[in-house]
Structure to design on (221 residues):
């Protein structure tokens, strides 16, 4: 189980530092709807992470049967493909960002602060269906499925992975609901920092985690 956690740790970190859900969290917490919308958003985000990972874990069990030599060729090839897709995604982000000024936020984020509880819950779930989030969840599922865990062990690992992935949303939400006067300045400065550095951080994370996943895949061949 510890080996499985070791494989999932970098993927969980990459999921946790994803700028889009963090920025959505900040905008909700800076809005007048924070007390009625932030918790539903957090719940939707957590349930979305767990649901997607569990779904991919069940799907991965179909392709990860060991070969006659004990190798997990299907699992390894799938992980390599996902890792290369993440590296390609990083290159695309880099090429598209050249010549564009930093600090621009997606237009749809401007509406996040006005969302009600159910819409915020739905947003938390839907953000797990972005291409980057799906690739990371699929990689986590393949790493988990290739570790020969029992159902109980897999449940514990998925719970830990989900909790780690959700920390950058959960901690600000809980802290703001408990001490809103202490967190507002931090939220404002964090929003500005993310706007300035989002592209650079995204590219570096995608490149690094892509290489790690490719390496994990190669060990399965």
């Amino acid at each position: 189980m510890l080996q499985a956690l070791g494989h999932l740790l970098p993927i969980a970190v990459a999921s946790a530092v994803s700028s889009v859900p963090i920025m959505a969290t900040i905008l909700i917490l800076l809005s007048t709807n924070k007390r009625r919308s932030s918790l539903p958003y957090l719940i939707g985000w957590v349930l979305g992470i767990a649901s997607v990972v569990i779904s991919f874990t069940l799907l991965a069990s179909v392709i990860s049967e060991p070969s006659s030599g004990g190798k997990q060729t299907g699992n390894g090839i799938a992980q390599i493909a996902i890792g290369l897709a993440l590296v390609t995604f990083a290159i695309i982000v880099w090429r598209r960002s050249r010549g564009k000024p930093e600090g621009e936020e997606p237009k749809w984020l401007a509406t996040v602060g006005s969302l009600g509880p159910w819409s915020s819950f739905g947003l938390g779930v839907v953000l797990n269906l972005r291409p980057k989030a799906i690739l990371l969840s699929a990689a986590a599922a393949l790493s988990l499925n290739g570790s020969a865990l029992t159902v109980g062990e897999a449940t514990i690992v998925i719970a830990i992975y989900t909790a780690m992935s959700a920390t950058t949303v959960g901690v600000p939400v809980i802290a703001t609901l408990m001490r809103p006067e202490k967190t507002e300045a931090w939220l404002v400065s964090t929003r500005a920092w993310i706007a300035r550095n989002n592209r650079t951080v995204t590219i570096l994370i995608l490149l690094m985690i892509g290489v790690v996943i490719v390496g994990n895949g190669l060990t399965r061949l």
User: Anything to note?
Assistant: The chain has one domain: 2-220. The longest helix spans residues 180-220. The radius of gyration is 18 Å.
